[in-house]
Amino acid sequence: MLIVVSGEGITCLEPDHMDRLQVDVRAGVSDELARSQLSSLGLMDGTHVWLDVEQIRALSGRADDVHWAERFEGMLRYARNRGWLREAALVRAHLTRTDVPTQDAPTQDETS
């Protein structure tokens, strides 16, 4: 799953790819702006972000899909086994920065 932080907001791209969980901060977004935009979704922690599991579900746009929900739970079990889950509410994601433009996708504001 790829979560993108851009100047326009937060989008979830590739919600069906459960083999990774990554937050990508796009070019032109300062650490301060990224922290602000991610504040409702999680906490930046060095090269990782701790994401709220329920907020990821909502942002994915797939929470009502039973098959997707089963696969998401499988991803969380894997994360738990690796020590990447805190109190069953926060899951660790890799934090990256790229200069790739954001694709057209609904932002968190549009999916709320």
What do these coordinates show?
This protein is of the alpha/beta class and 112 residues long. The protein has one domain (2-99). It contains four helices and seven strands; from the N terminus they run E-E-E-H-E-E-H-H-E-E-H. Strands 1, 2, 3, 4, 5, 6 and 7 form a seven-stranded mixed beta sheet that branches. Strand 1 and strand 2 (9-13) form a beta hairpin. It starts with a strand and ends with a helix.
Describe this protein with a few key phrases.
single chain, 112 residues, alpha/beta, seven-stranded mixed sheet, globular
In short:
By secondary structure, this protein is α/β, with parallel strands linked by helices. It has helices at residues 31-38, 53-60, 66-82, 108-111; strands at residues 2-6, 9-13, 22-26, 42-45, 48-52, 85-86, 90-98.
Per-chain topology:
Layout lengths: L1 E5 L2 E5 L8 E5 L4 H8 L3 E4 L2 E5 H8 L5 H17 L2 E2 L3 E9 L9 H4 L1
Parallel strand pairs: 1-3, 3-7
Antiparallel strand pairs: 1-2, 4-5, 5-7, 6-7
Helix content: 25-40%
Helix-strand string? EEEHEEHHEEH
Total number of strands: 7
Largest sheet: 7 strands, mixed
Question: Could you give the distance between the termini?
Answer: 19 Å
